[in-house]
């Protein structure tokens, strides 16, 4: 297995090796992460609404653990479809105002399982170039033609829709908010194109569910496009503070997925205590609108502080704030310097993002205070000057 060492050396030389470091929970402080003896402001978590340590969620999970047991014991098609699943899926359909909902083990399995259940050889998937890796893997798994369009470029998408107009089934798929850039997909234009070319439309709300919409339903609701989105996907692993994912759509779609989505069929059901915790998180996401308002205020404040400092942070308005550094090694050094200053903010490098766009990806949380964000932006500015990303 010499080849492996050689390849790893090459990755390390290019500042592209990935390593794992140990983090620990700082009990009662969802906005922080423990690293060794230190407590760092966590600006690299997707716990947007600060729910990951919510006492009401922990309480129902503890109770469910005692009554329902630890693991589910089987896949949902066998004997793992315990009662909390049905209750959650009803509540999800009600929340999203759709006919039916289906829970998956996580977002990766939802995307890879749904896309490979909907299309196959002879079909085509139109996918934004910056879509999440789980979407890309779903397309590869499906064996359908992969028609990648330039990021948010509707003219390019239109030309591909035209080119592949004679394919059997056509699926357009996009992130609603892009995970590494924090900008939004042009959903209205996507709906218009899907109608014009008779395609299906799938929207991944991993970074917008819980954050947009009056009850946190997501961006499709905020834009009142729900009836035009055929496959609506979201996760419980980000703003819900837990783990898992859902698909919402027509009764027929869900019936199809129950029969065809292999990650659902050939994998064990989630632990019932988790499902119970998700149900509790779902009511909190709907009821506690202040968490969304606080998150929006935090995003505005942090974005304007970084802009005032002279950084270019893209066009989005979401709690995902990319600070593009370009060079891989410089992005790593930036992240390490921030850690010294008490901020956990990881460097995101290729292949997660395109070549020469290595970045620090900040993500904000309801749990962050104005003072923490202002202090952080001053420290970020100093590091930016030190490393020559900013001119003094
Ligand atoms: C995180 C993410 C996923 C995967 O969700 P998990 O539940 O973490 O597996 C899918 N799509 C997008 C856009 C994501 O950001």
List keywords for this structure.
392 residues, alpha/beta, Aspartate Aminotransferase, domain 1, Aspartate Aminotransferase, domain 2, seven-stranded mixed beta sheet, four-stranded mixed beta sheet, 14 helices, 14 strands, globular, binds pyridoxal-5'-phosphate, 8-amino-7-oxononanoate synthase activity, AON_synthase_class-II
Average residue pLDDT: 96
Q: Can you tell me the CATH class of the largest domain?
A: Alpha Beta
Largest sheet: 7 strands, mixed
The count of domains is 2
Total beta strands: 14
Question: What general form does the structure show?
Answer: globular
Helicity level: 40-55%
For the record, the CATH architecture of the largest domain stands as 3-Layer(aba) Sandwich
Bound molecules: pyridoxal-5'-phosphate
Which superfamily, in CATH terms, is the homologous superfamily of the largest domain?
A: Type I PLP-dependent aspartate aminotransferase-like (Major domain)
In terms of DSSP E residues, the strand content is 15-25%
Strand order within the widest sheet? 4-10-9-8-7-5-6
Report the C-alpha radius of gyration, rounded.
21 Å
Low-confidence stretches: none
Overview of the molecule:
A seven-stranded mixed sheet has the order 4-10-9-8-7-5-6, sandwiched between helices. The chain has a four-stranded mixed sheet with strand order 1-2-3-12. It is globular and about 60 Å long. With 392 residues, it is of the alpha/beta class. It folds into two domains: 10-42 and 289-386, Aspartate Aminotransferase, domain 1, CATH 3.90.1150.10; 55-287, Type I PLP-dependent aspartate aminotransferase-like (Major domain) (Aspartate Aminotransferase, domain 2, 3-Layer(aba) Sandwich). It has 14 helices and 14 strands. Helix 3 packs parallel to helix 11 (272-287), helix 4 (107-118) packs parallel to helix 5 (133-142) and helix 6 (154-163) runs parallel beside helix 7 (187-197). The structure holds pyridoxal-5'-phosphate. Pyridoxal-5'-phosphate (PLP) is lined by residues 106-108, 111, 132, 134, 175, 179, 204, 206-207, 235, 237, 245.
């Amino acid at each position: 297995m010499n080849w492996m060492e050689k390849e790893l050396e090459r990755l390390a030389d290019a500042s592209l090796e990935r390593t794992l470091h140990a983090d620990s929970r700082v009990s009662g402080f969802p906005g922080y992460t423990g690293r060794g003896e230190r407590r760092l402001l966590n600006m690299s978590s997707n716990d947007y609404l600060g729910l990951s340590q919510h006492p009401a969620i922990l309480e129902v999970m503890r109770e469910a653990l005692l009554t329902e047991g630890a693991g589910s014991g089987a896949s949902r098609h066998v004997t793992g479809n315990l009662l909390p699943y049905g209750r959650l899926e009803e509540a999800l359909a009600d929340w999203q105002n759709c006919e039916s909902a289906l829970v998956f083990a996580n977002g990766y399995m939802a995307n890879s399982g749904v896309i490979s259940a909907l299309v196959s050889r002879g079909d085509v998937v139109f996918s934004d170039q910056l879509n999440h890796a789980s979407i890309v893997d779903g397309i590869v798994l499906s064996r359908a033609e992969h028609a990648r369009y330039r990021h948010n470029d509707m003219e390019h998408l239109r030309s591909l829709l035209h080119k592949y107009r004679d394919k059997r089934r056509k699926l357009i798929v996009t992130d609603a908010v892009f995970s590494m850039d924090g900008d939004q997909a042009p959903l209205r234009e996507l709906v218009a194109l899907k109608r014009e070319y008779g395609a299906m439309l799938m929207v991944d709300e991993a970074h917008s569910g819980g954050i947009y919409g009056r009850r946190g339903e997501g961006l499709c609701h905020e834009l009142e496009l729900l009836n035009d989105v055929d496959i609506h996907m979201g996760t419980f692993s980000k703003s819900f503070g837990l783990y898992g994912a859902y698909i919402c759509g027509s009764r027929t779609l869900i019936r199809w997925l129950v029969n065809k989505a292999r990650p659902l069929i050939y994998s064990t059901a989630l632990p019932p205590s988790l499902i119970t915790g998700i149900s509790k998180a779902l009511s909190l996401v709907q009821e506690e609108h202040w968490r969304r308002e606080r998150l929006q205020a935090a995003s505005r404040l942090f974005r304007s502080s970084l802009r005032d400092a002279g950084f270019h942070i893209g066009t989005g308005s979401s709690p995902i704030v990319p600070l593009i550094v370009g060079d891989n090694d410089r992005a790593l050094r930036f992240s390490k310097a921030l850690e010294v200053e008490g901020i956990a903010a990881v460097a995101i490098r290729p292949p997660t993002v395109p070549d020469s766009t290595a970045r620090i990806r900040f993500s904000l949380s309801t749990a962050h205070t104005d003072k923490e964000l202002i202090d952080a932006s001053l420290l970020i500015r100093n590091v930016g000057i030190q490393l020559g990303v900013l001119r003094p």
